[in-house]
Write a structure and sequence with these properties.
Helix content: 55-70%
Strand order of the largest sheet: 1-2
Strand content: under 5%
């Protein structure tokens, strides 16, 4: 007898025909219900590495990478960097010193932050902050993409 998709109300069966329960954070159980993975998005947005996000979700890095790429078309590192860029933009709007912005956003140092910021936005954080046309954009939802 074949068992359908794994879900808590319909447990999987092992090779001996005994029911097995799903792990708490099994990504496949989210897919079985078509649920948008708030846990997945939250884990990526709140960490600085794919390894930490995978540990929070209880899966391997490769499994996390496969599922994120399948759902979004982008690697987990893209979403982690996007979350960092958004944290940095919020801090820039407040007027914190650049070294503190870098630290708060999770960058190793100000130079690392400046390089990553320049690659994403095409200018340094200092130039971005001084530009009266760009700073209002920093507060818009979806900006930093």
């Amino acid at each position: 007898m074949r068992i359908g998709p794994a879900c808590p109300s319909n447990p999987r069966k092992n090779s001996l025909g005994r029911a097995t329960s799903l792990p708490k954070k099994d990504i496949r159980s989210y897919e079985a219900y078509g649920v948008l993975n708030d846990d997945l998005v939250g884990a990526l947005a709140s960490t600085s590495t794919v390894m930490v996000a995978a540990r929070q979700l209880g899966v391997s890095e490769r499994t996390l990478h496969r599922h994120v790429r399948k759902r979004t078309g982008e690697a987990p590192s893209f979403w982690i960097e996007l979350a960092r860029a958004r944290r940095a933009l919020r801090a820039l709007r407040v007027g914190l010193p650049l070294a503190e912005v870098a630290f708060d956003a999770g960058y190793a140092d100000q130079a690392h932050f400046t390089r990553a910021f320049g690659a994403r936005f095409g200018c340094s954080p200092a130039k971005f902050r001084r530009n009266p046309l760009l700073m209002p954009l920093a507060g818009r939802p979806g900006f930093a993409g």
